[in-house]
Amino acid sequence: MADGLFESLIKKSKELPSEWMRVLSPNTPAYEAAVLLNSTGQLPKITFDTIKEPGVAGEYNRKTNSISIDLSKKEANVTLPHELTHALRYAMQNKVRDIGENAVKTGKPLSGIDKQFYDAWYKLDPDFLKIKKFKYPDPEYQLYRFSFNEAPAWGVGNMENPQKSMSRSEYFMSSPGGDHYDATMASEQAILRDLYARQLAAKQK
């Protein structure tokens, strides 16, 4: 996406906290999500913990708006963009709702970047009613494929590690998206991040 756009948001708001800069790399989905959340005062608090549960390297708590992550685990590099995507999608959902409610309240039709972002959110949101549901033997995989909250976050996180970005081989023939599913989800979230950044930048002028 447009690198300068996210840097301009930092200049117009405030620098990312040092604890976040410790784990972020510029021009990555996690970095973009953090910049967007930081520019609206919604960046989660991050803590570095030891997580004993196998295969789990982090967690986002919506109630406390916080992310805990275990940097010693190999899954940490895909977990951070995953959890930040959760936080960002809640923020974007609230923004879209506000845009829509304001249009109704003022009686003015949406236009410009507000309309682009509003329309994109509803066009790109996972519509699982259009996907034939398969019953997978793995409950985690079932949640990953058909959850409004989880599918986009898994897509963004998994595409940070291409070796994990393909559907499990035993599900290739039955998967609704096959090996393109994560890439599609990640691309759609990148579009939403870009439009949200443009919407925020336009309001800061």
Give your account of this protein's structure.
With 205 residues, the chain is mainly α. It is built from eight helices and three strands, in the order H-H-H-E-E-E-H-H-H-H-H. It has helices spanning 3-12, 18-21, 29-39, 76-106, 112-124, 139-146, 150-158, 181-204; strands at residues 45-48, 58-61, 66-69. It has a three-stranded mixed β-sheet, with helices on one face. Helix 3 packs across helix 4. It is globular, with a radius of gyration of 17 Å. The two termini are 20 Å apart. The relative contact order is 0.14.
Shape: globular
Please bin the fraction of helical residues.
40-55%
Let me know the largest β-sheet: 3 strands, mixed
**SS-based class:** mainly alpha
Mean pLDDT: 83
Give the CA-CA distance, first to last residue.
20 Å
Quote the beta fraction: 5-15%
Number of DSSP-assigned strands: 3
Radius of gyration: 17 Å
Low-confidence stretches: 165-178
Q: Enumerate the strands of the largest sheet in spatial order, edge to edge or round the barrel.
A: 1-3-2
Order of helices and strands: HHHEEEHHHHH
Number of helices: 8
Secondary structure layout:
Blueprint: H1 3-12, H2 18-21, H3 29-39, E1 45-48, E2 58-61, E3 66-69, H4 76-106, H5 112-124, H6 139-146, H7 150-158, H8 181-204
Parallel strand pairs: 1-3
Antiparallel strand pairs: 2-3
Helix pairs in contact: 1-3, 1-8, 3-4, 3-8, 4-5, 4-7, 5-8, 7-8
